[in-house]
Design brief:
alpha+beta; OB fold (Dihydrolipoamide Acetyltransferase, E2P); BirA Bifunctional Protein, domain 2; 2 domains; eight-stranded mixed beta sheet; five-stranded mixed β-barrel; 15 helices; 18 strands; 22% strand; elongated
């Protein structure tokens, strides 16, 4: 039966049922988990005279005979639990009711079942129903396993002379051999994530792991005395990072507003207000490209910790990731990612950005880094090594491309790249040993950035000067990613920001590494997709 024909048949069938197909409530006396725990002691062929009611989604229907039908009922908080429903007409008080409900129920339907716990002679824990109730029908054919070499179509059957039960029996009678197959078209999976979650255990597992990562982060920081707060998503100025924002318009205020690209500045303003340890887990938005590791809407965790510096945060980062991986990976600090194995055991290497880059390039970079001579030297190095840097060709952008080409790709296990040039870090404090550098690090795993942190610049005078330099660079280069000066933040700094260290982590990328996914869309429940044009 074609999908369209199946849909039409189901619509007619459910319309005939009227409101009874959608009851308002169903009393569930035990969850599937509780059922399995409570009755796992039953021996083969044994029953117990408890009457219980469960509910879930039918993922398989097997018509053994007119008197016996088997269902696989799936449910649980992660959808991974399965219970066999062994429906036999002898347990029904009304034989007509038995045939009617089993004629209606099909794969994908959500049902409630009341009956007696039983273990089959083959050892399958089951529920023998005395009543089955349709709670919500599925109108569509769920994707089925691929049949090898046998075309299991209806033999000259039509909607008029073949009921849905006939369809099931016809396919069974073909005696097809089945191979395991999942709903695996990526485009369809991302657009119909609900169907992906219904059919693919791996997709559910990935999203559950993501939730556990966020939960671990939250509890780890709370145990250190951090307070979780919220900062605005709509802002007059998009600051805290170098990125192109999404722009919108507020009708009542008659002004342009921007979706935040980072929560950094308002979080630091909260620290100025006396909240010494704060963090936020939330969405950021950047109007940039989409690829395997970038999505315009993504999730970060940022925290700010007074009286600490970037050295302290490297130690905390090692401890946090190590404990997280042990918790999620059954005590094993090594995680498989593609063809490589990532070891999260501390300590992590600390690679000096400029020193190591100079060693790789076999040159001494010209200083100051904001000079025209340095910019020209970097452009020549990019040309020499066939590195295509997209314009505008600012010193910061050229350095970023060179570091990506020569340093980042070697960071398979967690590695800190430290001490970035000041020109790349307008919000970071100047390095204690070099006025050209800052106390900043980025953590890379499998060649991808996961964390960014630094000792925070807390002088309003220097911060204003840095912002002014940024605006000059914006005007000369036309770089739309450079934000406007946030005067409110500078004014807040005038009231005194204590010595503080700030830290940010991309949760989506970390989830990729801990679930062995190469595409960021796999770890975001509803990723940004191109508009689907119907022709």
């Amino acid at each position: 039966m074609e999908a369209h024909d199946y849909y039409q048949a189901r619509v007619k069938q459910i319309l005939d049922l009227g409101n009874s197909a959608y009851p308002h409530k169903y009393h569930v006396s035990v969850s599937l988990y509780e059922f399995i725990e409570r009755y796992s002691h039953l021996e083969n062929g044994a029953s117990i005279e408890d009457q219980v009611s469960v509910a879930g989604r039918v993922m398989n229907k097997r018509v053994q005979s007119k008197a016996l039908v088997f269902y696989d009922l799936h449910g649980g908080s992660d959808g991974s639990l399965k219970l066999q429903i062994m429906a036999h007409k002898q347990h029904y008080a009304n034989e007509e009711a038995f045939h009617q409900i089993n004629h209606i129920i099909n794969r994908g339907d959500i049902i409630g079942v009341k009956g007696i716990p039983h273990r089959s002679n083959r050892g399958e824990l089951s529920l023998m129903p005395q009543e089955i109730v349709l709670l919500s029908p599925c109108f569509h054919m769920l994707p089925r396993p691929v049949r090898d070499s046998v075309n299991a179509t209806l033999d000259n059957a039509t909607l008029d002379n073949a009921t849905l039960d006939n369809v099931t029996e016809t396919i069974v009678n073909k005696k097809c051999r089945y191979q395991q197959c999942y709903f695996d078209d990526k485009e369809s999976r991302y657009r119909q994530r609900y169907l992906d979650l219904i059919l693919n255990p791996q997709s559910r597992k990935t999203i559950i792991t993501r939730s556990k990562i966020i939960s671990f982060l939250r509890h780890y920081l709370e145990d250190l005395g951090f307070l979780e707060i919220e900062t605005p998503i709509l802002n007059m100025i998009a600051g805290g990072a170098i990125a192109k924002p999404f722009k919108t318009f507020h009708n009542e205020l008659s002004t342009d507003m921007y979706l935040r690209i980072a929560p950094e500045l308002p979080l630091k303003m909260a620290v100025i207000g006396g909240l010494d340890r704060v963090f936020e887990i939330g969405k950021q938005f950047r109007n940039e490209g989409i690829d395997l590791t970038h999505n315009p809407e993504f999730t970060t965790c940022e925290f700010y910790w007074t009286y600490q510096d970037y050295d302290d945060l490297m130690t905390v980062t090692e401890d946090l990731l190590y404990k997280m991986v042990l918790r999620l990976n059954n005590g094993n600090p090594q995680v498989k990612y593609g063809s490589q194995e990532i070891d999260f055991t501390p300590p992590y290497p600390r690679v000096s950005m400029i020193k190591t880059l100079e060693e790789k390039l076999e040159v001494t970079l010209k200083t100051p880094f904001d000079s025209e001579d340095c910019c020209q030297q970097l452009m020549e190095l990019c040309r020499r090594h066939n590195i295509n840097c997209h314009p505008p060709h600012t010193t910061a952008r050229l350095l970023d491309y060179l570091v990506g080409h020569f340093l980042e790709k070697d960071c398979s296990n967690p590695t800190f790249i430290i001490d970035h040039p000041l020109i790349m870090s307008p919000l970071a404090k100047t390095h204690r040993s070099s006025p050209e550098l800052t106390e900043r690090f980025e953590l890379f795993i499998a060649g991808k950035e996961v964390c960014n942190a630094y000792t925070e610049l807390n002088s309003p005078l220097v911060q204003r000067e840095r912002f002014a330099q940024q605006q000059k660079a914006k005007e000369s280069s036309g770089d739309a990613e450079i934000p406007l000066t946030d005067e409110d933040f500078c004014k807040a700094l005038e009231y005194g920001l204590p010595p503080t260290a700030g830290w940010g982590m991309g949760i989506d990328r970390l989830t990729m590494f801990l679930t062995d996914q190469i595409n960021i869309k796999e770890v975001i429940l509803y990723p940004t997709m191109k508009e689907q044009r119907i022709t």
